[in-house]
Amino acid sequence: MEGSVFSRAALSAPFGVESGVMSTGIFHAVVRGHPWVQLADHGEPLELEPGDVVMFPFGDNHLITDVPGSPHRPIGLLTGVDERGMGHLVVEGGGSRTSLICGSVKFDAGEAHPVFSMLPAMFRVHDLDGQISSVVESLIKLIAVEVDNPVPGSEIVVARLTDVLIVYVLRAYISQLGPDDVGWLGALKDPAISEAIGLIHRNPEHQWTARELAEAAGLSRSAFFTRFRQTVGETPAEYLTRWRIHLATKLLRDEDYSVAVAGRQVGYATEAAFSNAFLRVMGVRPGAYRRAA
Question: How many angstroms separate the CA atoms of 55 and 186, rounded?
Fold first, then answer.
């Protein structure tokens, strides 16, 4: 996962901004004001307050307004770029002021990433333990200082702080999940299923069976299989495939492994089996993915 800040927003009411569909995930951190956000084509408007962070993991088109229903304009018509390459989203309406930090978040090999694939289209981190997280609020203020008053090293500081901010946001999102929430994040709260996931992560090349994983989790095979599927949202075999392919993308892209070697490294006996599994998860053959990378 990698985060970055690409824009500083200074908005005064009335204002309305439409993001358009983005190629990466997007987050907005509120420094000042109470803006409203919502997915552009569906969903209810959500009021934010200072210290809140709202994330759109898939880059869905969304609206930021002073009040629900305000007229909005495309973000490209409202944003300028300074000499540092930092965007400045400015709307001077003359009313109450809102200040935002806008950034991107990219998950490595998103199609196969277990976190990325199971996040909702939009979520907000708010009201942790009955109050806004002091750490998240402090991170937002530190990022704002570095962006507004750049000095040598500010770009590095902002990049590192943004990565930390996103980790805290995801951690907070996990803490807000209820016992019935399905997905990899919720599964981390289940000690038995978390143990099985850990085994898959540590030894992806092993030919894991549901029986082996069930024994490690301290459950019967049938109970484990049912609980894993209900909690994670896919079978153990499907999850193992997703994790293997996630690791293989890194080998093909960053290590320049051949398709055959990358497949063997993550547990496939033949190149054909690896290629077919890669196609199911990523939508392309590993050879094509390697060439594009």
Answer: 18
Nearest partner of 229 among 213, 244, 218, judged by Cα: 213
Q: Which of these three, 135, 154, 176, is where a domain ends?
A: 176
Please calculate the CA angle 280-284-287 and round it to the nearest 5 degrees.
Answer: 120
- Predicted local distance difference test score (pLDDT) of residue 129: 54
pLDDT tens string 169-207:
888 887 777 666 666 777 777 889 999 999 999 999 999
Asked if 39 and 20 count as a contact pair (C-beta separation under 8 A), the reply is: no
Residue range 117-164, pLDDT digits in tens = 678 899 888 755 545 567 888 888 999 999 988 889 888 999 999 999
**How many domains is the chain partitioned into structurally?**
2
Which residue's entry shows tokens 């301290």?
218
Place of tokens 């009201």: 127
Cα–Cα dist 257/46, whole Å: 46
Domain that holds residue 163: 2-176
**Please, what is the end-to-end C-alpha distance for the chain in angstroms?**
17
Asked whether the beta carbons of 8 and 88 are under 8 A apart, the reply is: yes
| Single residue among 176, 201, 231 that ends a domain in this structure | 176
Residues 47 and 101 in one domain: yes
DSSP E strand stretches across 200-270:
none
Strands (E) in the chain, as ranges, are: 2-12, 16-18, 25-32, 36-39, 46-47, 53-56, 62-65, 73-74, 79-81, 87-92, 97-106, 123-125
CA distances (Å), 211 to each of 179, 195, 219, 225, 229, in order?
25, 14, 9, 9, 14
The C-alpha atoms of residue 232 and residue 210 are separated, in whole angstroms, by 14
Collapse the DSSP code of 257 into the 3-class scheme (helix H, G, I; strand E, B; otherwise coil) and give the result: coil
- What does the DSSP assignment read for 241-288? HHHHHHHHHHHHHHS---HHHHHHHTT-SSHHHHHHHHHHHHSS-HHH
Amino acid 208 reads W
